[in-house]
Amino acid sequence: MKKLLPNWVNVALTSALLALAIPAHASAEKGLEIAKEMKARDIGWGDSQAEMKMILTNKQGESSEREIRIQSLEVQQDGDKSLSIFDSPQDVKGTAFLSFSHAVGDDEQWLFLPALSRVKRISSSNKSGPFMGSEFAYEDLTSFEVPKYTYNYLRDENINGLDAYVIETIPVDKNSGYTRRVVWVDKAHYRVQKIEFYDRRNALLKTLTMTDYQQYLDKYWRPLNMLMVNHQTGKKTELNWSNFRFNTGLKDEDFNQNTLKRAR
Description:
It is a single chain. By secondary structure, this protein is mainly beta. The protein has a single domain, classed as outer membrane lipoprotein receptor (LolB), chain A, CATH 2.50.20. It is 14% helix and 44% strand. It has helices spanning 7-21, 24-40, 257-262, and strands spanning 47-57, 63-73, 81-88, 96-100, 108-113, 118-122, 149-159, 162-171, 180-186, 192-198, 204-216, 220-230, 236-246. A 13-stranded antiparallel beta sheet has the order 6-5-4-3-2-1-13-12-11-10-9-8-7. A hairpin with a 7-residue loop joins β2 and β3 (81-88). The longest helix is centred in the N-terminal third of the chain and has 17 residues, at 24-40.
């Protein structure tokens, strides 16, 4: 009598065969199409402001909190601009971070440290470094721009009860701290649900989960909770967002190096 394989084995084999059946060029094309749709659904929001609580937790479970104000400006045909201002605790109060994302070429980033009363430029070679002791790297804080990566569609998968695409994104920038990212994008709204980051040795470094999405202006989704877990250090950073406002009248002149020192 023919011996039947367990159902889970059949499912795994079927998935593997389907993956093999997708030509490489088709995988890349589908991955790129998904990325373009993600970007297309987040165009036109203009400018925004919000508050954020950053919770840093070390390997021993000890945590500390920071309160930050964020303002952002959408730039047509290029990456977005953002300004982050630390309000507490006292030892980092007045610290400000300015970021200009670019669709093509190096991003530009500056950090104002009030204790030193000087503006430090973050070089491209240091973009993989940690942002203010968190598990987010400077390069994690730039806007998503399609030309920054090449893409591969990997599979469909259910995540958090949602049907999702799973795509691989490979940074074009040789200074990136990652060899690749694996991204879960829900099919209904093209919202990122989870990202796995792989380091330069292609080992799993971090996982970012994005939850509690809220919709603004009847179109734009923002996650109110973001949790980055570093699998290699045991540390984690949680971002809790609140009070999103859009079309607040921010202009380009609100985002330059002079605003860093005035940002309090």
